[in-house]
């Protein structure tokens, strides 16, 4: 865990320096020097003690940083690090932090394919200019060196944002299918990133709670909550396209005979 990650999780968990010192056993002065950047290369034992306290419990997909990178003085990962990952390692880069991505479940893929097909068919019938893409498709959200995300589904209506390598800038619409490993990241970290970057509409398909959380930032900061079987209007298309996830809802039901 590098300095940037420690700062993020310290803030997320609401720890003061004194609390962090008490929980980790690391002297208060040492912690203050590390977080201020005065201490560039903390002892390994100190880092281990801090990581035990700060390490996320529900974001085990975060990529652990090799010690050589931390001790080189690097506080943030960049696109250079992202592109240096093995070809078979899917990951996202968010504000200089790397998160690994496990292979999606079959239900995840079924939902993604069905929703993508409905969107693509609508655009084709309307002879629209928008493009729908499903993961894996890189999105250089902030057009900087520290963020590259891979949403499950995106709709891009400005084709100038499409390059051979990635989407440059914010898509108009993003859909994420929540999983236990990505739930916190998608619901909090990515929500903020997408809103600030200029994404107009953001859906989160929550299979665990059988719901879809839909944000349309141009109208309201408060999301609308739908059931999986409800017809949900895609606001960037004026509500003319409606999508439901009834197949996912049916698969979530447990027959009474099996209970």
UniProtKB/TrEMBL annotation:
The protein's name in its UniProt record: Helix-turn-helix domain-containing protein
Matching PANTHER family: SLL0198 PROTEIN-RELATED, SLL1222 PROTEIN
Superkingdom per UniProt: Bacteria
Domain HTH cro/C1-type as annotated: residue spans: 6-60
InterPro entries: Cro/C1-type_HTH (IPR001387), Lambda_DNA-bd_dom_sf (IPR010982), Nuclease_put_TT1808 (IPR012296), Restrct_endonuc-II-like (IPR011335), Uma2 (IPR008538)
Gene Ontology molecular function: any one: DNA binding
Organism: Extibacter muris
SUPFAM superfamilies attached to this UniProt entry: lambda repressor-like DNA-binding domains (SSF47413), Restriction endonuclease-like (SSF52980)
Pfam families, A to Z: HTH_3, Uma2
